[in-house]
Structure formats: C-alpha cells, structure tokens
Amino acid sequence: MEALYRKYRPKNFDQIIDQKQAKLVLQNAITKDRVSHAYIFSGPRGTGKTSVARILAKALNCPNRSTYEPCCECESCLSIDRGTHPDVIELDAASNRGIDEMRRIRDAVGFRPMMGRYKVYIVDEFHMLTREAFNAFLKTLEEPPVGVTFVLATTNLERVPPTIVSRCQVIEFKNFTETDIFQNLMVVAKKEGLNLEEDAAKLIAKRSAGGMRDALSYLEQIANFALGEVISLSLAEKALGLVPSEIVDQFIDYIITGKISQIERLLDTVFENGYDLAQLVALSVERIEERISQNATIELLQLAKDLLEISKELRFAENKKTICKILAMNLAAKSSESRQEVVQKSKPVEEIVQPREKKVDSNLSQIEELLQWLKDEKDMSIYVALTQSRITQKGHILDISFLPSQRFQYEYLREKLLELEYLFKTKMQKDVVVNLFIDEEREKRILQKLQENFPGRVRIEE
Prior knowledge:
Number of helices: 22
Oligomer: single chain
CATH architecture of the largest domain: 3-Layer(aba) Sandwich
Strand order of the largest sheet: 2-3-4-1-5
Shape: elongated
Order of helices and strands: HHEHHEHEHEHEHHHHHHHHHHHHEEHHEH
Strand content: 5-15%
Radius of gyration: 32 Å
C-alpha cells in the first residue's frame, strides 16, 4: 500500500498548495524559457521542495507541454513520477556526501540527455555534503553544459557555502498554515473514505508544525489505529500517544487555582499511565497560547513563560517526574499566594504556631521567619514541602512529620536534609537536629476523629 504522502504528492503546479513565490518564479521561467542552470530550494521539511523539483523536471522534459504545466500523461512525465527517467537523477546528499559522488556528477553532466530535452539533478539535503565535495561540485555548478539544471534542496541554507549560494537562484519554501493543512486533510480523508472529525483534523494540523508530509503521515497512522472507527479527537490523541486534552486542561487549571495536592496526584497519574511529562508541559503551553489569543492577560503570559522554563529544565533532566512535580507545585503555590488563598490540607501554619508537644514562642517565630524567607528569596520548593508538614520542637531537635499521603514531600526533603539543617541552624543561630519521618499514627487519629464526627460515612480499611 502506497503511503498517503506519496499518493497525494502534487503532480503539477496547479496542485501545489500555497508556495506562491516558488510557483510564480518557476512558471515564468518555464514560459519565457529562462530556466536557471541551478536552483536552491530552501525551507523546512515537508513543505514540497522535492515535489516541486520533480514538477519542474516534468515541465522541462514534457513533449506535450504548451504552457508551464506538464501533461502528466506522457511516458516522460510518468517515468519521472515513478523515478525511472534516465535524465532525472535524484541524489540524497545525506548518504552520498563525499567527493566521489560529486566527481561522478561532474563526469556525467557532459553527456547529452537520453530521453528528454534536459538533464535535471535533484540533490536532497544538499547542506550535508563535505567541504571537499562542495569544492569538487563548484566548478561544475559554475559552468554547466547547456541543457543541465541542478535543483539543490536543503533545510539548512546557512550550512551551504556562500560560493555555492551566489551561483544559484534561491527559492524559499515556507511552512504551510494550519488552515491549509486542515483543508487538505479533510479532502484526503474524504477520498480515502475516512470519517475524520474536524477537531481531530485540527489536532493533526497543529502537531504537524507546518509540514504537509508529517500531517499525512499522522493521518495514516491514526487511520490504521482507528480500523474503520470515527476518527475523533480522543482517538487521534490515543493514536499519536498524546496526553488527553482534559488532563492538559486540568493541569493548567490546578496551577492557576493553586491546587498543589491535586497537581501532585495528577502528575502521578500521568506518569503511571506512561505519558511524557515534558509533552504535558509543551501541550499546556500550546493550550495557554490558545487562551491568550482569545483573551490575553498578564497572568496567562506569565504562566506560559514559567511553563517554558519548566520545559527547559525537563529537556535534559534524568528524574523528570520529581522535577516536574516540584516546579509545577511551586507555580501553584505562587498562584495561591497571589490570590491570597491558604492551602488547607494539613493546616501547617496553625500547627507551627501552637504545636501540641511544646510551645516555645521565640523559636517558633524564628521558624515562621525562615518559612517566609524561603518563600520570598530562597527556595520555593522547600517552602512548599515544609508547609505541607507538621513541625514541632523538643529542645535542639526539630521533628518534621508527614502523613503517609505526603510521601513525595518527605522524600524530597530527605534528599535536602543537609541543606535543611544548615538553613535552620543559620536562622535559629544554634545547633539543631532535623528529624524527618512519616507519622502514620497521626493519620489514624485524624481518620478516627472523622469517624466519630461522621459515623457510618467514614470507613477505615487496614
């Protein structure tokens, strides 16, 4: 079965979507018989560079051409479509990048065309040639024989030597718009008998990042996954392995509303289901971009900037889960503070001010000062973890306890234990020993209290 991006590759200039500059330059050159000896087609992948090069080769060699359009029915046109035309030579410079390949081209250009009027050399990924290969190709490019045209396609024009660029006409190819990709996907889906919903097509158009080839490849992948089912947005997300839209929306809303514990549980779920946390952050940035386009606010702009910073941190991180949790919870804490909301899960501030074991007002005020200092200047991640804990003091010993459901905060502070002790010693100006532990008894007491207050509605499972 032929791939969709090959099956629906444009066969003439009229079928080319957009790329107005390339079409106009080449059409006029063909009509007025002023075709250059060398073109550089520069632009992102999947924007039609090789397809246009083939159309140019067909137009130059089609015996039935009256204007600039090839007939697409003669043996010359059909053989170019099949890749068997003896005068149209396609070369991949990524795998044929040495001086020997360029020497073979130099030796072959002197021979007359065998079947058509022009010999057309299409060199893909031209920037991948070695320096020696560029030098060997330079003389041939400067003085080619009559009836020879070079089309040099590249996704990285900056890597092509200026001596090469100055001897060619450079035609820039641009990314397709999401609208163009969306419309083409709907046309292809109809021809292929696929029941493609518009929301799914829009998702594919966005994921393809301006490349039509990528979009058609995605569509083919999703169609194989669907096996005749309606291609909905949720099905397309599953087929592409994307984090579901509802999870992305929840993640953003939890950050904006300062729901720290919900973020922790959500990220645990995302990780356990095998989704990529870096992808979740990237999709969140895209979703915020959509919201900004509808109603730009300072808060959304700042959130997008903060998520981009998280994305950078995750790019080379080994423990993506921990880093994503801490940084996302940090953002939620900032949002909560800006809204003057207090996280009520474990009421840490009340327990710090009035601990059950011992009341030492001066020391506790120093702890409060340390928390405020951490929040304002030092480390928001440690601050968030501490505010979820219960802090009590017995002489020179500080007990920092967590409920079993707060094991993540406990593990994070345990990794920071030396730094934590140093912070407390510096702020309290005396030696202290920090003990971190999971207080299972406290959780049992809380559950028992709930059971007493709500008899028959709370059940404790061992």
